[in-house]
Design a protein that fits this description.
Heat Shock Protein 90; 502 residues; alpha+beta; Helix Hairpins; 5-stranded antiparallel beta sheet; 12 strands; rod-shaped; binds adenosine-5'-diphosphate; 13 helices; Beta-Lactamase
Length: 502
């Protein structure tokens, strides 16, 4: 079972938390803005109404005739009508207070019936309002009352003195409304906003859910594929879909999986080949030794069979040496001992070490060196191994009286060294595989002779040098070429590459 929160879970949680925070902040900021704006507008509208009322009140004093007749003046009637309108429209009531403090309230019957609005300020409160209003101030208040908070707007009620042309404050006009009626108006809006906010959150959450799943699904598939590979299933591959980066990652993963699969395949083949190569000499050694012991092989033939046993042990030891060489070359930390040396001189020493074999087959050897000395920069022991392997192959695959040519030439910074023979040659279909480990071409009929590791070792050595080895196609025989970095003939260089070893 997988422990901990998955990448999908983590991403989704983070995204949803961010979205929730943003939506909440957006909602509250908008809500507070709308609320403040709404209250401000309502207060301004009430202020306007209060000013109208103050204007009407200022005209009351001039309606003296109507009063004298004991009739309600037109202005007074208009004021009552206005108070009625304000109540209907704003659910607010109007109090007009004279400077003396005598209170005159204008409200209609319905206002009286509305208990929440039956709040009348005390004489002290009115006195304090009057003091502020006398200085021409307009007041907006939120006050607490027994029936809940109230919004109050107070404006001065002035009259112009015809003689002095100055405004005299006669009293104040106060409009009061229960805060809850103002709040109720925008609360409905707040609910609508909350529904929109929740809807927005749900839609974005859904989109984020699908996007996150789309993003993490290839990663989960890749993790599954990696798990399968860890359990030994090298055929597992990750789907190459999704965003560009994920596609690239899946591509790289699959490439790595393919390489691992090839590596695993070649590891298995290698183990099978090594076992096979070891088994045949051991079987024949065992068979001949047993035959000599139990008398199946007559005494007079012992020498002949002992020679076979010795040959087989030589082959075994050569195989094991080659395997060790190869594994040494393949280990990354084997460093090369670079030096500048004369490759022609090195080749001459290798030839000397192989004189017996050359004479045995009566092979002609031509050392076609462009210059007397040809300096290269490389690991001389390793290059000697390459030349030995190439020359041994040329001797092995060239019939008696054949010809072998060693050639060196320099072009700018590169030295080309070739080993050519006029032996059995290599078929084009074999040429693709001769550098593979344990590959032996059928045409060579060398089963029981070579190990199939010589050229693989050569290739690895040249790769380690950052150089190349190739088979040059041509008619009659085989020709191999290696490249080497040109070296400097050091002053008094009497570097003496070691004598041939096998
Ligand atoms: P082996 O120990 O079998 O020679 P190598 O890796 O050196 O292994 O060579 C691989 C195969 O390449 C040989 O089995 C042989 O078939 C072919 N080969 C190599 N060199 C030559 C050559 N000079 N002429 C013909 N065939 C060659």
């Amino acid at each position: 079972m997988r422990k901990g929160l998955s990448l999908f879970g983590r991403l989704l949680t983070v995204f949803l938390a961010v979205i929730l925070c943003s939506v909440s902040v957006l909602f509250f900021v908008t809500y507070i803005n709308i609320r403040d704006n709404y209250v401000q507008n309502r207060m301004n509208a009430l202020k306007g109404q209060a000013r109208d009322m103050a204007y009407l009140a200022s005209r009351l004093n001039s309606d003296t005739l109507s009063r004298a007749l004991g009739r309600t003046s037109t202005t007074e009637q208009y004021m009552k009508w206005k108070a009625d309108r304000v109540y209907k429209e704003y659910n607010a009531y109007i109090i007009v207070v004279e400077r003396s403090g005598a209170q005159r309230t204008y409200y209609n019957e319905s206002t009286l019936a509305d208990e929440s609005l039956q709040y009348l300020p005390s004489q002290e409160e009115i006195a304090s309002y009057l003091t502020r209003v006398m200085q021409g101030e307009e007041i907006v208040l939120q006050t607490a009352s027994a029936r809940g908070p109230l919004f109050t707007v107070i404006v001065p009620w002035t009259q112009e003195n015809i003689l002095t042309n100055q405004q005299t404050v006669l009293g104040l006009v106060m409009i009061q409304t229960a805060a809850q009626t103002v709040h109720a108006a925008y609360r409905g809006l707040a609910w609508q906003m909350a529904v929109v906010a929740v809807g927005m959150f749900l839609i974005t959450a859904l989109i984020v859910f699908f996007l996150t799943r789309q993003l993490t699904r290839p990663l989960t598939a890749m993790a599954d594929a990696a798990g399968s590979m860890a359990r030994g299933d090298f055929a597992a591959r990750a789907p190459e879909g999704g965003s560009r980066e994920i596609k690239e990652l899946a591509g790289a993963f699959n490439q790595m999986a393919a390489q691992l699969s090839t590596l695993e395949q070649s590891r298995r083949e290698f183990v099978a080949n090594v076992s096979h190569e070891l088994r045949s000499p051991i079987t024949s050694i065992q068979g001949f030794a047993q035959g000599m012991l139990d008398g199946t092989i007559p005494q007079e033939n012992h020498e002949q069979y002992l020679q076979v046993v010795v040959d087989e042990t030589h082959r075994l030891s050569k195989l094991i040496n080659n395997l060790l060489n190869l594994s040494r070359m393949e280990s990354e930390d084997t460093s090369l001992a670079y030096s500048d040396f004369d490759v022609n001189e090195l080749a001459r020493r290798v030839i000397i070490s192989r004189v017996a074999q050359l004479e045995e087959k009566n092979l002609e050897l031509d050392a076609d060196f462009e210059e007397d000395a040809c300096f290269v920069h490389a690991d001389s022991d390793q290059i000697q191994q390459v030349i030995i392997n190439l020359l041994d192959n040329a001797i092995k695959y060239t019939p008696e009286n054949g010809k072998i040519t060693l050639r060196s030439r320099q072009e700018k910074d590169i030295v080309y060294f070739r080993v050519k023979d006029n032996g059995i040659g290599i078929l084009p279909e074999d040429s693709l595989h001769i550098f593979d480990r344990f590959y032996k071409a059928d045409k060579a009929h060398t089963v029981g002779k070579g190990t199939g590791l010589g050229l693989a070792i050569c290739k690895r050595i040249m790769e380690k040098h950052g150089q190349s080895i190739r088979l040059i196609s041509g008619e009659g025989g085989a020709e191999f070429e290696i490249t080497l970095a040109a070296g400097k003939p050091a002053a008094g260089n009497n570097h003496n590459p070691g004598a041939g070893k096998d």
